[in-house]
């Protein structure tokens, strides 16, 4: 079993929909949770960075962390075709070693 | 401002050839990381530099992989006697602080290596 599990998708939604992306993890030492967006043939770009449990909002993006369930989510409101990309969750126990999920491919249809 | 840059962007090598992949981190960033991203997978940690010191190379898959950062800025990842299983995207990331903790890592565009 991998430390971080993420559904690879693809997930297809119509423009304007609310998108929910999720990761589960097994290591209770993880305290830092990140979401990266990766466009095709590009490097990952940081979207959200969260410490411990709770919610964090930035524009159309909301990150949620539920440490009791070892479950994190990224919500995208009013999704746009430009949001079409692979979304990677990443986690750390406080060190520089990030553990990434496999990524979920998202397609937002115009 | 300039981000992390990597070159070449694409590299095709015949099995058994040596390759060298270059990373230019964000100016002034102390920490530098190399990751390997196989097709359809997330990035996997290879090695970590703090300035010129390689503090962690636990993720390097074999002794054919070697990384250096001699002056604490540009880094090179070298793969000797390439094998087909080395085909992947090699990502470089940098971070402004020492030991980085869980500091934000800024990624470059990657070098896509294909070994025939």
Tell me what the structure shows.
The complex is a heterodimer of chains A (110) and B (116). Chain A has 110 residues and is mostly beta strands. Chain A has strands spanning 4-5, 11-14, 19-25, 32-38, 45-51, 54-58, 61-66, 71-76, 85-92, 99-100, 104-109. Chain A is 0% helix and 55% strand. In chain A, strands 2, 4, 5, 9, 10 and 11 form a six-stranded mixed beta sheet that branches. In chain A, strands 1-3-8-7-6 form a five-stranded antiparallel beta sheet, with no helix packed on it. In chain A, 35% of the residues are buried. Chain B contains no helices and eleven strands. Chain B is globular and about 40 Å long. The model of chain B has no long low-confidence stretch (mean pLDDT 93). Chain A binds chain B through residues 4, 6, 8, 31-32, 34, 36, 41-46, 49, 51, 88, 90, 92-98, 100-103, and chain B through 4, 31, 33, 40-45, 48, 56, 91, 93, 95, 99-110, 112.
Topology, please?
The complex is a heterodimer of chains A (110) and B (116).
Chain A: E1 4-5, E2 11-14, E3 19-25, E4 32-38, E5 45-51, E6 54-58, E7 61-66, E8 71-76, E9 85-92, E10 99-100, E11 104-109
Parallel strand pairs in A: 2-11
Antiparallel strand pairs in A: 1-3, 3-8, 4-5, 4-9, 6-7, 7-8, 9-10, 9-11
Chain B: E1 5-7, E2 10-13, E3 19-24, E4 31-37, E5 44-50, E6 53-56, E7 65-68, E8 75-79, E9 88-95, E10 106-107, E11 111-115
Parallel strand pairs in B: 2-11
Antiparallel strand pairs in B: 1-3, 3-8, 4-5, 4-9, 5-6, 7-8, 9-10, 9-11
Shape of chain A: globular
- Please tell me how large the radius of gyration of chain B is: 13 Å
Largest sheet of chain B: 7 strands, mixed
Number of E strands of chain B? 11
Roughly how much helix do the residues of chain B carry, as a percent range?
under 10%
Oligomer: heterodimer
Number of helices of chain B: 0
Category by helix and strand content of chain A = mainly beta
Helix content estimate of chain A = under 10%
* Number of beta strands of chain A: 11
Order of helices and strands of chain A: EEEEEEEEEEE
Low-pLDDT residue intervals, each spanning 5 or more residues of chain A: none
End-to-end separation of chain B in angstroms reads: 37 Å
Helical region count of chain A?
A: 0
Estimate the global geometry of chain B from the Cα principal axes: globular
Rounded mean pLDDT score of chain A: 93
Work out the largest interface and the residue count of each chain.
Answer: A-B, 28 and 27 residues
Q: In what range is the share of β-strand residues of chain A?
A: over 45%
Poorly predicted ranges of chain B (pLDDT <50, ≥5 residues)? none
């Amino acid at each position: 079993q991998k430390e971080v599990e993420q559904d690879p998708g693809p997930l297809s939604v119509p423009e304007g929909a609310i998108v929910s992306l999720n990761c589960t993890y097994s290591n209770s030492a993880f305290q830092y949770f990140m979401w990266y967006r990766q466009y095709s043939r590009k490097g990952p770009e940081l979207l959200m960075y969260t410490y411990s449990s709770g919610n964090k909002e930035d524009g159309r993006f909301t990150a949620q962390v539920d440490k009791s369930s070892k479950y994190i989510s990224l919500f995208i409101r009013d999704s746009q075709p430009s949001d079409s990309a692979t979304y990677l969750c990443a986690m750390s126990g406080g060190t520089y070693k990030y553990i990434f999920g496999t990524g979920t491919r998202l397609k937002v249809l115009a | 401002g300039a981000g992390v840059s990597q070159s070449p962007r694409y590299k095709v090598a015949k099995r058994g050839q040596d390759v060298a992949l270059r990373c230019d981190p964000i100016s002034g960033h102390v920490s530098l990381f190399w990751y390997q991203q196989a097709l359809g997978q997330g990035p996997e940690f290879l090695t970590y530099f703090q300035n010129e010191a390689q503090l962690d190379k636990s993720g390097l898959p074999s002794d054919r992989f070697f990384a250096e950062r001699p002056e604490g800025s540009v880094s090179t990842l070298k793969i000797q006697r390439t094998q087909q299983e080395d085909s992947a995207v090699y990502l470089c990331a940098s971070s402004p602080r020492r030991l980085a903790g869980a500091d934000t890592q800024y990624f470059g565009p990657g070098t896509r290596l294909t070994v025939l």
